[in-house]
Amino acid sequence: MMRKTAFAALAAVMVLGAGGASAQTLKFGLAEDPDALDPTLARTFVSRLVFSALCDKLVDIDPNLKVVPQLATEWSWSADNKALTMKLRPNVTFHDGEKFDAEAVKYNIERHKTMQGSQRRGELSAVTTVDVVDPLTVRLNTQAPFAPLLATLTDRAGMMISPKAGKALGDKFATAPVCAGPFKFVERVAQDRIIVEKYDGYWAKDNVNFSRIEFRPFIDATVRLANLRSGQLDFLERLSATDAGGVQKDSKLKLASITEIGYYGITINIGKSDKSKSPIGSNAKIREAFELSLDRNGLNKVVFDGLAVPGNQWVAPNNPGYSKSVPIPKRDVAKAKALLKEAGNTNPVVNLVTPTTTDANKIAQVVQAMTKEAGFDVRIQATEFATSLNMADKGDFEAYILAWSGRPDPDGNLYSFHGCKQPLNYSGMCNPALDEILNDSRLTTDLAQRQAAWEKAAKIINAERPIIYLLHRKWLYAHNAKLTGFKEYPDGLVRFAGMKM
Amino acid sequence: MTRFLLRRLAILLPTLLFVSIIIFGLQQLLPGDPAIAMAGEERDPQAIAEVRAKYNLDKPIWVQYGLWIGGILQGDFGESIRIQLPVSQLLLEKLPVTIELALLSMLIALAIGLPAGVISALHNGRWPDYVANVIGLWGLSTPNFWLGIMMILLFSVHLGWLPASGYVSPTEDLWANLQAMIMPAFVLGTGIAAVFMRHTRSAMLQVMASDYIRTARAKGLYERVVIGKHAFRNAAVPVITLGALEFGQLLSGAVLTEQIFSIPGFGKLIVDAVFNRDYAVVQGVVLCTATAYILLNLLADIAYFLVNPRLRT
User: What is the pTM of this model?
Assistant: First the structure.
C-alpha cells in the first residue's frame, strides 16, 4: 500500500514536473553538435543556430533579405562609399552586465580581424580601421567601396561579445561565451546538450517568452523526428524532405519551410590542375551538352520530393540578385547529342566526386542516369566529406558535387567562387572580364547597378559553366503544433524572440 | 600468482607504447587534412595555416608524436580542434557514461545469456533448446540500429513509456537515468546475450559429457549440485574470456547504438571526431580503449586462476 502511494506520488510529481517545464523550456533538436561557440572561430551552420539565442548582431535580415536594425539602429554610407557609420542602440548590456558601446564594437571587429585562427578575417578584409565617433556611434572605414559589408554584419562578423570576457578568456572564450543576445550561456556537454537561460537584462526582453532553451544534437533525421513525436523535443531543424508529408498529416506537429540562400551545384575543374584536361573540363561544348541533358525538375522530384527550387544561378530565382534574362535551360537531349558530335566526343567519360551524404549521392545517381541518355559515361566517386574537400582544394577532381550554405548578399555566393585565385574557386576559372565585373558590383550600394553587374556575370558564367548550378533546397522545420510565433528566414536561422508555446 | 601478475604488468607499458605508435601512424594515413576539414566551407587560407601551426600539424610526424606522447605522460591529451575543449575533459565526461552503459548491457546479457545457455544445453535436442537457439540466432543477426529504431517507435512514439533518447546523469536523477539507459542497454545486451548463450551451451555440453560429471552423478549428488558446482563452474572458464572481450568492445563505444539513442559516450565521441579529423580526440579515445582492453585481459586471466584450480599450479 505504502509503495503504491509512493509510486503514485512519484508519477504525479513527474507529470507535473514535465508539464511545468514544457511551458517555459524550449527543447530544440539540432542536426549536429556545434563547433566552437566563439563567433570569431565558428564555422558551422549549426553553431549559428545556437548563436541566434546567445549573440545579437549589429544588424539582422528580415524574411525578404532586407537589412534591418538589431544592435545598431541606423546606418549610413559616406559619399565615397568608403565609410559605414552606425548608430548604436542605447542601454544594451552584455550577459556579464558590461555596457555595449562603440568601444565594444571596435574591440569585436578588431578581434575578428586579428585573432589567431579567425574565420572572419576574410569577410572583414575590406575594413581598414574602426573609429569610435562617440559612445553610441561607430564608423567602419574601408580601403575601397565594399557594398557587401552591411550584409556581412548580419552574420557572425556582426556578433558582439563582451570585451571583458573576451580579454579574460582569450582563445578559451568558447567554453563560456558572453554576448548580448536574448539568452545567456549556462552549460555545454559536448555532443549532449547546450543550455541557455533567458537574460533578464536583454534590451527586448518582453518579446522573449521562454526561460530556457535546451539544444540537443541528433544526427539521424529519423531519430530526431521520433524525438519530436514522443515529446522529447519541441522543435527540430533540417527535417528530411521525405518526412515532410508525414509531419503534415500529424495534427500534433507543424511543418515550416523556406528556400535557402545557398545552392547545390556541380563544380567542374576547368583550370585548377591537370585534371582540367578531362573532356568536360577542356571543352565548353561538352559542358553545355552536360547541362542540356539534365532535367532539374526531375532531379528535384526524385531527390527532394519536389520540395527544392530548381535554379541555374548562385541565387534562387526569387532572389533580388537573380538575373531573369538568363533563364533555366530546358532539357534537350537531341541538342546535347549534337553538341557532343560537334565536339568530336560522343561518349565522354566524367569522373564525378560526390560527398557521401544521402542527398549528394542521390543527386549523383540521377545526374548519371540523365546524362547517360545523351551519351555521357558518368563515373561516381563517392568520397567522405572531409576528404572530398581536400580533393577540391588540390584540384584532384574533374567534377564535384558541392552544396554552399549561402550568404545574405549574393556577392557571398559569387565572388569567392569565380574571382581569379579566390579561396573557394575550385573550378580554377580566371576570366579578367568577369573579375572586373565582380569588382564593380562591390563598388556601389545601388541595387539596380549591382543587378546590372550580376546580369553580366551570369551571362559569362552560364556560357563557361565552371559551376553548373542545379537547385536550391528548402530549410525544413517541424515543431510542436502548440508553438506559435515562428517565422522562417532565408538564412535558415531561428529567431527565438517572439516564439512561444 | 604474484610472479604471473608482475610479468603481465611488466609487458603492459611497452604494449601501450607500441599501441600509441600504431594509433598515431594509422591516423596519418586517413585522407583529408584536419585543418581543412575544420575550416569547412569557409576556407580562409590564413585561418587554415594558423590552425595547422597552433596544433603542430605543420611539424614532421615524429615531432607531432613526441609532443603528443610527452603531453600524455603529463596527463595532457591535447585539445579538440573542433570544439576547443581539452581532450582529457571530454574523456572524463564520456567515460562514466560508457562504463554505465557497458555495465548495464553486460548485466542484461548475463541475465539472459547464461541461463539460456545452461537450459538449452541441459535440454539438448528438445524444444527448450530449439527455442533458445532460434532466439539466439535472432539476437545475433538483428542489427542494433534496426532494433534501436524499432524500440524507439514502439516504446517512445507509440506507447510513450520511455524517452526516445537523451541522457540524464545518475547523480542528477537516477530514475530518469535508468529510463534513458534501459533501451540502449537492452539493444546492446541482447546482441551479447546471444553470444553468451551459444558459448555457454557448447561449453556446458562438453563438460556434461566428461568423466567427472559421470563420477559426480555416480556418487549420488543432487543434480543441481552437479550442474551448479561441477559443470557450470568449469564451463564458465571460456565464457569469462569472452565476457572480458565483449566488455572491451562495449567500452570502445557501441558506436551505432550511442548515435541512435544520443548517449554521449565514447562511441558518439569517436564517430564525430573521425568525421572532423579531430586527431587529438581520436587518439585519446583509442588509447583509452586500448588500455581498457589490456587491463580487461589481465582481469580475465586473474579470473581464470580463481575459477579454475587446475591453472594454479
Answer: 0.85
